[in-house]
Amino acid sequence: MFVKLHRDEQAVILAACDEDLVGQTFRDGDRKLDVNEIFYRGEALDRNGLVQRMKSVDIMNLVGDETVTVAIEEGYASEEDVIVIAGVKHVQVVLL
Questions:
Q1: N or C: which terminus of the chain carries fewer CB neighbours within 10 A?
Q2: The pairing of beta strand 12-17 with beta strand 2-7
Q3: pLDDT for the residue numbered 11
Q4: Is pLDDT of 30 > 90?
Q5: Measured in whole angstroms, how far is the alpha carbon of residue 77 from the centre of its chain?
Q6: Which of the listed CATH numbers 3.40.225.10, 3.40.30.10, 3.40.50.300, 3.30.1860.10 matches domain 2-94?
Q7: Which residues, other chains included, contact 94 with Cβ-Cβ below 8 Å and sequence gap of 6+?
Q8: For 35-80, where are the E strands, in sequence order?
Q9: pLDDT tens track for 36-90
């Protein structure tokens, strides 16, 4: 999985996706999911690496079956939170 952290004064955002999805755009009706390389391509990490990064962020933007499944199994999201665009899972998580 590719994992990249983005920081500003207010939040740390984790962008993560399954490696095979980076650089692709998915469309389903009027919905569009752009897995932009600049936003998502960062470190290539395994599950444990992703879980460690998840512990220190404020917002998560996650794409792909493997990546989204980690968020669900770790309790950050539920299946009901997930949207599917052209067969690709996507979830956003805001930690308060």
A1: C
A2: antiparallel
A3: 97
A4: yes
A5: 11
A6: 3.30.1860.10
A7: 58, 59
A8: 43-44, 59-63
A9: 999 999 999 999 999 999 999 999 999 999 999 999 999 999 999 999 999 999 9
